[in-house]
Amino acid sequence: MRTPLTQPEILRALVEETCRLPDAPIGDVTMGTCLAAVSARFLGLASLVSHIAPGIGRQTPADGPTSVHEAAALLADAATTNTDAASLAMAAVNALLPPPDIEADMPGQDIVLEHGRGKNVAVIGHFPFVDSLRAACSTLWVLEKRPKPGDVDASRADEILPQADLVAVTGATLLNGTLAGLLNACRPDAFVVMLGPTTPFAASLFACGIDVLAGCSVPDPEAALTGIRSGKCFKGLSGVRQTVWRKSAARA
User: Fold this and answer.
1) Distance between CA 91 and CA 72 in Å, rounded?
2) 138 and 34 fall within a common domain
3) Is residue 228 a part of any domain in this protein?
4) How many alpha carbons lie under 13 Å from residue 21 in its C-beta half-sphere?
5) For residue 95, what pLDDT band results from cuts at 50, 70 and 90?
6) Do 161 and 88 share a structural domain?
7) What DSSP state is assigned to residue 161?
């Protein structure tokens, strides 16, 4: 059963979970065209809001937080919502949260296909893999703020999501203020997947009703940073490993 939560409650729980871990200083911060990367305990990634949100200007902060705990606190500040500051804060969180103890190397699209075959599926955002899903699903809705042919305008989420057996949301919904509203529109029995490089391996998200976190780790930071600096988006990035963490395998 999903417990309705507000966006600030979701973000506060994520910040609290992060800050229960020993803090780490922030090293290099890299901003590409599509992605932000922060070096701390690990190399953490997040999508840049200025790349994915129409009309949002790119922001390059001159001075930022010096530790992950300081950066994480910015996520709970409403002033950072839907800005590149939120992207950098999430990348810092991802640079501290450890990969799951029990994990499976698998692209997020595979988990959506595994659980969505023959079912009604709603995907928030036009991911590169959506065309390959259409033949496998009974019904596929792709909700987009900038709809492409065959997509549904994101403004219809409250109408579409209660019909979906599976809902796939991008981790960027943690940055733009929309995750709570989307989750609250889902049926209590819907299977919910969060996917993409922004997705944090945070057990607190399971309490929101998310069943699988399909994020990534960065076993080869130099390769990943080279790609980010050259403007590559996640699909074409080397040095990363896509990993799924299921609620049923969550650490206590």
Assistant:
1) 9
2) no
3) no
4) 23
5) very high
6) no
7) G
